[in-house]
């Protein structure tokens, strides 16, 4: 698979992810949530930059009921603006079809976070991630304000591959969490 371009890999893995049955998706999501919930890094974090599941990414929603400050992004121009969000609060749908907090939700600076949960299409054994190609997380993770915050890439086992094609702007994640393992990079 690593011989493919980023675009080809993205298409292949997204097709595989979208072919998951609802039951498979839920089981994989539960396993990932349980693994995250038991990590000391997660338990100790008070403020977490997270994401709403999109295109059958692992569903982390039940974690949002835990007593943490949950922050979610809104895509504004080419940046992510982070907002505090609580279960039961309204959200909107972005032009990309992704749930996001309302503009009126309190804004949080990324450097106030203790942990960043990073959505991925795929990750490799070195800790590099493949996203959707917009560069939003590449810009976030390469910023000085986020360089010291631990990152956990959330990915399914079938999308955790030996090596991705990488570009100079790609940033390694600190940890990878799948339904069967958790690894430091």
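-> sequence recovered:
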């Amino acid at each position: 698979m690593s011989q493919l371009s980023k675009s080809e890999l993205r298409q292949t893995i997204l097709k595989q992810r979208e072919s998951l049955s609802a039951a498979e998706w839920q089981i994989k999501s539960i396993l990932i949530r349980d693994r995250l919930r038991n990590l000391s890094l997660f338990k100790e974090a008070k403020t977490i930059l997270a994401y709403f599941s999109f295109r059958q990414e692992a569903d982390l929603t039940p974690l949002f009921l835990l007593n943490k400050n949950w922050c979610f992004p809104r895509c504004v121009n080419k940046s992510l603006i982070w907002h505090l969000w609580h279960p039961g609060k309204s959200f909107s749908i972005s032009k990309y079809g992704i749930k996001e907090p309302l503009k009126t939700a309190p804004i949080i600076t990324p450097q106030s976070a203790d942990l960043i949960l990073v959505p991925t299409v795929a990750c490799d054994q070195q800790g590099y991630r493949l996203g959707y190609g917009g560069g939003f997380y590449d810009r976030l993770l390469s910023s000085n304000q986020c360089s010291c915050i631990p990152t956990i890439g959330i990915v399914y086992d079938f999308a955790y591959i030996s090596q991705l094609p990488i570009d100079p702007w790609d940033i390694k994640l600190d940890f990878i969490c799948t339904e069967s393992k958790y690894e430091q990079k």
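The first strand starts at residue 47 and ends at 49.
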